[in-house]
Design goal:
The structure is a single chain. The protein is of the alpha+beta class and 135 residues long. The chain is built from two helices and six strands. A six-stranded mixed sheet has the order 1-2-3-6-4-5, with helices on one face. A hairpin with a 2-residue loop joins strand 2 and strand 3 (34-40). Helix 1 (54-71) packs parallel to helix 2. It is globular, with a radius of gyration of 15 Å.
């Protein structure tokens, strides 16, 4: 017999090591063994300021995601899917290089989407889905 969807608890995740949510959402939500990580932009968690330049923003995005993953009880090694949002698809190569430094094989599945704009005039945003192994 299948459990009803309403029976599955969901838990909000928060860490000061990543920027606080600036709206009605959580940094991440855990539902069972799956964690849905909200999109991260290149905000410095200490100052709340957007870093200058694509490379600095991309690096900060993946560090922010890693912090939320850790607060969720996992790491970027547990990420199974990411979506990359770029305001200029010409930046794909640089973001790809940065992502490669933060993920080991097998790499997560990925989609890349060109968008007109992002919050705070960011150049890149990335969200993720993580699956935690049973302990």
């Amino acid at each position: 017999m299948l459990a009803s969807a309403s029976a599955m608890a969901k838990t909000a995740i928060h860490t000061a090591q990543a920027p606080s949510a600036i709206g009605p959402y959580s940094q991440a939500i855990r539902a069972g063994d799956t964690v849905y990580l909200s999109g991260q932009i290149g905000l410095d968690p200490a100052s709340g300021e957007l870093l200058d330049g694509l490379e600095a923003q991309a690096e900060r995005v993946f560090r922010n995601l890693a912090a939320v993953a850790a607060a969720s009880g996992g790491s970027l090694d547990d990420v199974v899917r990411v979506t990359v949002y770029l305001t200029d698809l010409a930046h794909f190569g640089k973001v790809n290089e940065t992502m490669a430094r933060h993920f080991r094989e097998p790499h997560p599945a990925r989609a890349t989407v060109g968008v007109a704009s992002l919050p705070r005039a960011a150049l890149v945003e990335v969200d993720a889905i993580m699956h935690l192994r049973a302990h």
